[in-house]
Each structure stands twice: as structure tokens, then as C-alpha cells.
Amino acid sequence: MTSIRRQLLLWLLTGLALAVLAAGARIYTQTLAEANEMFDYHLQQMAASLPNDSFGPLPPSSTQELEVEDGLVVQIWDRNGLELYFSRPASKLPQRAELGFSTVKTAHGSWRVFSALEQNNVVQVAQPMSVRQTIAAGMALRALVPLLALLPVLGILIWLTIGRGLRPLNRIAGALGRRTPDSLDALPQDKLPLEIQPLVQALNELLARLARALESQKAFVADAAHELRTPLTALQLQIQLAERAKTDAERATAFANLRQGQARAAHLVQQLLTLARQEPGVTAQPHAPVDLAALARLVVSEYAPLAADRKIDLGLSHEAPVRIAGDFEALRVMLGNLIDNAIRYTPAGGVVDLALHLRDHAAVVEVSDTGPGIPDEDRTRVFDRFYRREATQAPGSGLGLAIVKNIADRHRAAILLENRDPGPGLRVSLTFPLA
Amino acid sequence: MRLLLVEDDAMIGESVRTGLQQDGFAVDWVQDGRAAELALETNSYDTLLLDLGLPRKTGLDVLASLRRRGDAIPVLILTARDAVADRVKGLDAGADDYLVKPFDLEELAARVRALLRRKSGRADPVLQVGDLAINPATHEVSLAGNPVALSAREFALIHALAARPGVVYSRAQLEEKIYGWGQEVESNTVEVYVHSLRRKLGANFIQNVRGVGYMIPKQT
After folding, report:
1. Average per-residue pLDDT in chain B?
2. What is the pLDDT averaged over residues B64-72?
3. What is the pLDDT of residue A56?
């Protein structure tokens, strides 16, 4: 698992360590360069200041040493190459004839050598490079050690700061963890770091949407249960009457009523199911090309028997070759509900027309009837679930138009209800945008 | 006993009316609040069965204006609203009883009988007038302990008269008690039933008040 805290700590400390090392390297090279300059000068001075005359041939076991500092070694030869003086016999330095500065590699490390011709003698002053390197390294280390010692302290500080910064996240996680499924009020948004605010805000918006969805679901279930009571009450009464029936005629009537009651309850349940399936957010069928004209013919032929039964002239009055992207079954349910409504509310002898037009890059489906129409004040409420207009005599679940609305919304279709002019009658127009 | 049923659902209304008629009640049925008020103004009922979710005028409004007019008719609310708050509201608005849908026909009839009993100030479910005992729940009638077989209309007539001994009912009033709307009233029907009741219960049990109507005298 990735941890922001651990990653930040790791990368910050690595970066810091690299910076410290780079600084150390820079200090080292700079100091070394300065030391070189200084010591070279020193070597030169040394060579110049040697008392040349005093040297005779070396005594075999000379313990006399010219005091040399900084590991300096002095060698003096005469012109003939005879060693006159060697300050430190142990250190073997190659005899160099080259005058001036040179760097010599020996088995004991690198040496910086300065040779000069003083009168008749060759004076060579040498110094191991390690001396200069040690000095440079020492400088670098003195600068680095406090910085390196600071690293753990910085690490702890970073750890604590990030922990502090992330604490609101823990707080939110805790608050969310303690929630019950139905406590969906917003999380507190005050005193939040800038970086976490968008997250909490998005969470709050989600919670609000969930709360609304849950609320409407609860209301729906309550409404549905309430609405189911009516057909169930009728069924219970009808069953009792059937049980009480004493004559065959009474029994036949009772059973006919019972059958009607059962059909009504079944219709309501069917509509509830359809509505639940067409709820927004429910995984719906993917949209496919739908031939609206063919669909219109199909729905009209499906409802022709019902229309004939009610003495209503149902027909397809105009059609246009229109295809839209949609869910065929849902569209069929929608058109069916509209035509069913029109047939139910239109008195016998009336006309119900389905028409299909192509207007301004939109497919328009119209269902018009010669029924009583809907007064202006009820036009929006009729789409509410279980809303049935007062004094409605036609049987119904009160769900038909709610289902139509859901399906239309899913197809981004606009619904318009208008009373026909001249009346009477209602016209329902569905406008589908054509892609 | 004549009841007014106010119920907007056709199937429920139809079934309740049929069921209560089978129990010997005369039932008038209307489907909205306004029609209920009109019926209450033009007829007299022994009990009102009231749905709450009514078109045009809600049941609670009908009840409120009824009580405001000082009408003490027993009211039984029939509704799908089962929350305690709804029951309290209904009872506080002046209802005498509250029955939640779905309900049982037998229970409905029993509650109506209880309301009628309370209205006439009796606690005993059996009406007793002299030797005559009438049980409205079972429709059993007995005279000095011997069961008497009566038709539904005969029962309705004797029940109406025995509920208020000493009160004279006109022929029209008695017809109202026996028949609901739409039930065809045969001519001389009250006379016919009084005649057969006299045959079964004794000639002087129901007395004719000439020019006014019929009564069962108060027993001393």
C-alpha cells in the first residue's frame, strides 16, 4: 500500500541527503583547489628559502632533519646527481629532473613535487597529496556532519507535519465510519486544509444526492404500500362476498367482481414494477436504433381491441420515417401508457390519434384524444406518482404518466400536455431530439 | 337501519354496500364529499361510513362541517391511513370509530351495530321489548324464548321499531329504513311486512296510529 506520509518522508529525506552530499562534494573540491594553490605556493617558498650552501654530502646516518611541516619532504642534489640532503629517507621519492611543479604517483600515494635549481643544486620539495585531501575532506566533513545530524530531526519533523496535515482525513474517515446507512447529513467542512476541501465537498454532494434518492425511495415505498391497500381491501371484501353467496347467481356476480379486483391489483403491481424498472439510475437497456413508425404501428395494433371494446376510433393519423436511438421496450411501454390513458378518458364514440412528425431536427410523437382534457392547474401534477385527478371515474393506478415521464427523461424527450383548440380533447406531444 | 357510505373507490364501495345489505342494513352509497353532504342534508341516516381520501371534499372536512351543524350521527371512518396521528385526528374531528383498510365485512357490520347500540344508549347488544328479543348481530328474533323466523325486510322493520319503543314512524320513514337508493319499493310494502309480522308475533305487537304510522308501545 502506498502511504503519502512514507513516500513524502522517503523522497524528502533522499532529496535532502543528496543535497547535503552535493554540498559536501562542492566544499571538498573547492577546499582542495584552495589548498593546492596555497600549498603550491608554500612549496615554492620553501624551496627558495633553503640554505643551499650548508649542504655537504650526506652523512650516512644522518638524523638531522630539516623540520618539515605538512608532510613536506625535501631533497637536494648537486649537479652531479649526488644526493646532498634528504629529509626523510624512508619516503622514497623518485628523483625528478623536471623543474617546476609536477604530480607524481608512487606506491605511497600521489605526491606534489616542486623542483628548482638553486645555484648548483637541485632542490626538490614534495608533499603527499593526501595531506591536501585530508584537509579538504576535513573541511567538507565539518560542514556536513551537522547537516547529516539534522537529517533524523528533519525526518521526525516531516513525519509529524504530514501526520498533522492528514489528521482531518482521519477525522473524516472516523466520522464516516460511525455513520449508519440512513444518516446522510453533510460532513463538517470548517477547518479543513485546502487540499482536502474538494474531497469533502464532493463527498457532501454525493451524500446529498444519496439522501434525496433514499428519501424518494422511502416515499415511493410508502406510497406504493398505501396504494396497494385499496385493491387489497376490495379483494378482501369481494372474497368475503363470494364466500357468503347463497345462490349461483350471487356467486357468479361475486366471482366476476373478484376477477376484476384481482385484475386491478395485478395491473397496479405491473405498473409499479414498470416504474421501478424505468427509474433513472437503474441499469437500462443500451440504446439502439428504433424505428418509431414501426413502433407506432405496433402499439396502435396492440390497443386496437381495447379501443374497439370502448367504441373508440383509434388510428395512426400521420407517420414519418423516423429513427431514434432508444430502448425499444421502454418506448413501447411509454406509447402504450399514453394510448391507454387516452382510451380510458375518452367517452365512447371518441377518437384517439397517434401521429408521428419530423419537425426541426426532432421526432415528434403526438397522442390526441377527444376526452375532457386536463385543466391547467393539474398539468404538472399529473406526472406525480399516484396522483389521480379528483372526480376521476376511469380506473387506473395513477402511475401511467409517471412512467411516461421517466422513460421520456431517459430519452431526453420533452413532454407537452395541451388541451386541444378547438376542444374538447388532450394532446400529448413527445419531442425527441435527433442526434 | 339506514347507512350512508361515502367511498370513492368503486370496487370497495360496491362490495361494502352489498355486504352490509346482506347484513340487513339499507345502504346509500356516494363517491365524493359534496355528494355526501347533499345526501346528509336530504335524508336521515343512522350511521355514516366515511372514507377520508375523497375527491371534491375530504372526509375530514365533511365530518367537521357535520359536527359544526350539531349533527350527532354516529360516524365510522374507513380509511387506508393507519398512522396513530391519523387515527387521533379522525377521532378528534368527531368520528366515533376508526377502521383501517383492508377490513373485514363482519367486523365492519359489528362496529356499525355497536355504534347504533351506543346511539340508543344501550349496552346490551340484544334488544329486548317485552317478550321480544332481537339480536342485531345474528338477526335472531325470539318471542318468549321461542325463535321466530323473519325475512331480511321483516327484520329491518321490527329492528327499526323496537330500537325506539313508543316512537311513531311514518310509512315513508319505515320505507327509508328498509330500502336504500335504487332499491325498488313495492307499493303497500310496509303494510305487507307489518301484516306478516303481526301474524308471527301477535296481532297487537305493532300498533297502528291512524293517519300517522306505526309503533311498538313502550313496555311497562
Report:
1. 88
2. 89
3. 52
- Contact with chain A for residue B56, Cβ under 8 A: yes
Q: Do B15 and A229 touch (CB under 8 A)?
A: no
Does the beta-carbon distance from A241 to B19 stay under 8 Å? yes
CATH number of B2-119: 3.40.50.2300
Residue A65 has a pLDDT of 46
- Strand order of the β-sheet with A426-433 is A313-318, A351-359, A362-368, A426-433, A414-419
Task: Residue A232: list chain B partners with CB under 8 A.
Answer: 101-102
- Compare CB distances from A391 to B9, B10, B32 and report the shortest one's residue: B32
Which chain B residues have a beta carbon less than 8 Å from that of A392?
55
Q: Kindly report, residue by residue over B69-117, the tens digit of the pLDDT.
A: 888 899 999 988 888 888 899 899 889 999 998 899 999 999 999 998 8
| H helix count then E strand count, chain B | 8, 11
Q: Identity (one letter) of the amino acid at A299?
A: V
Residue A386 to residue A400: CA distance in whole angstroms? 9
Average pLDDT estimate for A239-252: 90
Q: Which domains does chain A have, with CATH numbers?
A: 4-140 (3.30.450), 197-278 (1.10.287.130), 288-433 (3.30.565.10)
Q: What is the pLDDT of residue A392?
A: 59
pLDDT at A91 over 60: no
Distance to chain B for A232, nearest Cα, Å: 7
Strands annotated E in A260-384: 288-291, 313-318, 323-326, 351-359, 362-368
Set of chain B residues whose Cβ sits within 8 Å of the Cβ of A230: 9, 12, 80, 101
Please give the model's pTM, rounded to 2 decimal places: 0.60
Looking at domain B127-215, which CATH architecture does it have? Orthogonal Bundle (1.10)
Q: Return d(Cα B32, Cα A95) in angstroms, integer.
A: 132
> In terms of CA atoms, which chain B residue is nearest residue A243?
B19
Contact A261, A233 (CB under 8 A): no
Is B101–A230 a contact, with Cβ atoms under 8 angstroms apart?
yes
Domain span(s) for CATH 3.40.50.2300 in chain B: 2-119
The residues of chain B that CATH labels 1.10.10.10 are 127-215
What CA–CA distance (Å, rounded) separates B141 from B138? 9
CB contact under 8 A, A236 and B102: yes
Per-residue pLDDT of B177-214, as tens digits, reads 888 777 777 777 888 889 999 988 888 888 888 888 89
* For A259, nearest residue in chain B (alpha carbons): B11
Enumerate the residues of chain B whose CB falls inside 8 A of the CB of residue A233.
9, 12, 80, 101-103
Rounded Cα distance, B8 and B53, in Å: 8
